[in-house]
Amino acid sequence: MPTHQQLLELLAPAKTAEFGMEAILHGADAVYIGGPAFGARANAGNTIDDIRRLSEFAHRYNARVLVALNTILHDNELDAAQHTAWDVYNAGADALIVQDMGLLELDLPPIELHASTQCDIRTTEKAKFLGEVGFSQMVLARELTLTQIQAIHANTDATLEFFIHGALCVAFSGQCYISHAHTERSANRGDCSQDCRLPYTLKDDQGRVVAFDKHLLSMKDNNQSNNLQALIDAGIRSFKIEGRYKDVGYIKNITGHYRTLIDNILDVRPEFRRASTGQTKLLFTPDPDKTFHRGTTDYFVNGRGADIGAFDSPKFIGQPIGTVTRIGPTWFEMTSDEPLANGDGLNYMHKREVFGMPANRAEQKGNAWRIEPNLELNVKIDTLPGFRVGTLINRNGDHAWEQALARKSAERRIAIDIQFLETTDGFSLRLTDEEGINTETSLSSEKTLADKAEKVEPSLRENLGKLGNTDFSVRKINIQLNAPWFFPVSSINALRRAAISELETARAAAYHRPERKAATQPVATYPDESLSYLANVYNDAARTFYARHGVKLMDSAFEAHEESGEVSLMVTKHCLRFSFNLCPKQAKGVTGVQGQVRAEPMTLVSGGEKYTLRFDCRPCEMHVVGKMKKHILKSPPPSTVVTTPLVFYRKRPEAIAFVQ
């Protein structure tokens, strides 16, 4: 075995402390959770007591708790954010997940800082800079390829984190302002209205309809199950699951799924080991297809693919399980190789609309299944839109499987070796856990020979191994006695309980929280001397930070309402010209087409909203361009902006050039 093993971390989401505990039991090495305020999921906050409970539980397994403090902040929120940082640190949290660089100018506790996804880390220069100013870990942009990840890994000593599962924001994280432009609900303030999941009509530069009423900005869900080894080789060490709004069944299933995959890799890659302790035993078989997803994609990890959008529906359709063979007034029959159950969630799709029909009763009849669905009062099956013989039926709710997840579905135990030794005045019990932490607990006792010598050791082994609901499991038991002494069961049980308690105390004392990484000296220089509104600079402390690191020109964040004209409301790697085979790069080498396909602007329409799509072909990006609504533009930002000396502020950003 190598003398130095690198750590691989499975990082799971936690909507609540209880969800976080389930994630840890199901194999997470770390969890991320929102604190009382300033998290990028506004409806997933937790109290300081919640953070304390979760931290105490996590640390039993050497698992970490990362607290999201990752919104951009008003000037009048900085003091409260600083207090929150200290509160979560004192509650036992291991790291803060940060977007706003103004926090680095405050009096923060000596806690690790992790760069949030909203920091939009997709270049080696930015990653290197963030590592130099004190970030120990950073989550890279979801849009990166393996080659790009590898280049970043070669240029920073920070731990690299990457999203491996869950919902995908169509925009580069931190680069979407559509929600704020229309509703004043800012994604960078944790309150996105998810305009990307709405239906849109796409028109070309001549007004011709390319796609009608489809969910053109809705991505399939991320699934990197097949790319874990390649991501490890590229330099990823923390594997992040999205989902702080997801239910506990999702947390259990997806965490268990990736725990299994990563453990399989660890079995054949001895140069790595898991970042926490204890072995997880799953009491169910994980299946990521059975919990919410919009179809799956590995996005851009292996380069641009043609099928990354969930254009037909942003809903969870589930798995196809059969087709309709007969239809009655209150029932239908279908073929299916899958066992069905009362309570299963069934649906079908007609004209891009999903129609749900939960099964009140599912009964097998020969090679078919007879389904009596739960429909609204007075609705007959033969009047359902598009429902006919041959209709494909999907299942998005497997009742029996979900019931298994609703019960206890995992155990996690830390392996220990037990030595029972004879001493001068009695006996002792020495426990050594899988990390090498050991304790020794003594039992003063008179020594009396047992009547049945042959039963002494088997009885000792049985009673010493009764670890019950503790965090531990026996790896081996070694008994060393000079003679077959008699042991009252009550004495052995008491000794074992005392020894376990001492080991728990020793493990808690041995847990170490790494301190905040020191910034390099001399002070690192930011890669650019100017920042547009896309940098999300929203408070004076952030301006001070960037000025100190060499930035000379700055725009205020979009939320400051200084952008009165048309601007990019979204910057995305997703390209609708590519999706509909209208990309100039696709036309290269095609006889009679090359030179005729250009990246002219297109138009995107949803309800009363209209956007211009502009295409920046050099970095292969799409910009959704529009204006902030007038009533929002006129409303003052919630705090007063104070100008920092020696820094110039532009009212308007430099024009963004779009090339063909």
In CATH, what is the class of the largest domain? Alpha Beta
Helical/strand content category:
alpha/beta
Low-confidence spans: pLDDT under 50, at least 5 residues?
A: 640-660
Do you know the CATH architecture of the largest domain?
Alpha-Beta Barrel
CATH superfamily name of the largest domain? Aldolase class I
Helix content: 10-25%
Shape: globular
Number of helices: 15
Query: Can you summarize the main beta sheet?
Result: 8 strands, parallel, barrel
Summarize the structure.
The protein has 660 residues and is of the alpha/beta class. Helix content is 22%, strand content 28%. The strands form five sheets. It has an eight-stranded parallel β-barrel, surrounded by six helices. A seven-stranded antiparallel sheet has the order 8-29-32-31-30-9-10.
